[in-house]
Amino acid sequence: MDTEDRARLIRDGDRRALARAITLVESARPDHRAQALDLLAALRPGPQALRIGLSGTPGVGKSTFIEAFGLMLTAQGLKVAVLAVDPSSTRSGGSILGDKTRMERLSREPRAFIRPSPSQSQLGGVARRTREAVALCEAAGFDVVLIETVGVGQSETVVAELSDLFLLLLAPAGGDELQGVKRGIMEMADLILVNKADGDLKPAALRTVADYAGALQLLRRRPQDPAGFPRALPVSALADEGLTQAWEDIQTLVAWRKAQGHWDRTRAAQARHWFEEEVRQGLLAALSRPPHKAVMADLGDQVERGALTPEAAAALMLHRLGPAAG
Ligand SMILES: Nc1nc2c(ncn2[C@@H]2O[C@H](COP(=O)(O)OP(=O)(O)O)[C@@H](O)[C@H]2O)c(=O)[nH]1
Ligand SMILES: [Mg+2]
């Protein structure tokens, strides 16, 4: 099948074609890579989805939230795609696969598309391919793309670079501590959702919301926020409570950011970021492929023998990569 056929099927919303295209962008084979680049280029410019990043530690209720939130959106007639950046997927064998059965109702919904995390060992690799999967979902006309990640520190930063909006899902705290959420992660959040605000946990959830609301006020004001944001609110994914409020807040933020030009500026800065990241990763990959791999090995040997200093050998290598690089 050629690029134009693939692109047309994806634009028409053919789910099989979309799934196959995501497999294509995840492939490391050079011929697949070339086809993937052609396809991504053929699909631009296209419609934009609202890309929502969602992070939280295991057990906080991400899958339950995505199912409830996704069903709320599809019930409104919106098309929702769910992707995952899961740095542990190689170890766990792809946890969202298990989640797909957990998100059973959403996966049966014709307006929803759920894609398990690609199995790659490197967070950087997973993230780059996920970014391309997001682009494919946008081209396929999804209104909302939810990008889930397990909170392990680094992956939130990556997901934030993929998203228009970043949601942090937390559980009610037992004591008065802020659950060890790192300041850097709090600073990325647009909405902090304290989940499990139901039953016995409700009072603790409301206290936690108040704690985080206070903590958010102490953070430096960000230019991309209207008054009152970022904010914390209680939700219950299980009881389907607070989700409408969360969606309203999201829409308020989006409308404001679009009107103020932040939306376009952020997307432009993200595009630049991913361009630079691709180049960095490409250079790194080139070092472990012919012809550079052998030169690296040879120079390394010389450094070991003391025939060259590390810095002199590095200068030689960089000069080989391109006279300006050194
Ligand atoms: N009480 C309560 N339990 C919840 C809620 N959301 C999720 N859970 C439960 O928390 C556990 C972990 O949920 P899951 O969605 O798998 O969390 P994930 O690991 O973040 O994807 C499950 O037993 C859920 O039933 C909620 O809103 N209220
Ligand atoms: Mg889960």
Helix/strand layout:
Elements: H1 3-11, H2 15-26, H3 30-42, E1 50-56, H4 62-75, E2 80-85, H5 89-92, H6 95-102, H7 104-108, E3 112-114, H8 123-139, E4 144-150, H9 154-162, E5 165-170, H10 183-188, E6 191-194, H11 202-218, E7 231-234, H12 243-260, H13 262-287, H14 292-305, H15 310-321
Parallel strand pairs: 1-4, 1-5, 2-3, 2-4, 5-6, 6-7
The structure holds guanosine-5'-diphosphate and magnesium ion (MG).
Query: How many β-strands, per DSSP?
Result: 7
What is the N-to-C succession of helices and strands?
HHHEHEHHHEHEHEHEHEHHHH
Strand content: 5-15%
Q: What is the makeup of the main sheet?
A: 7 strands, parallel
Bound heterogens, unique = guanosine-5'-diphosphate, magnesium ion
Low-confidence stretches: 89-94
- Average pLDDT works out at 88
Broad structural category: alpha/beta
Strand line-up of the largest beta sheet:
3-2-4-1-5-6-7
Query: Radius of gyration in whole Å, from Cα?
Result: 22 Å
**What sort of overall outline do the alpha carbons produce when their principal axes are compared?**
globular
Total number of helices:
15
Distance between the termini: 43 Å
How helix-rich are the residues, as a percent range? 55-70%
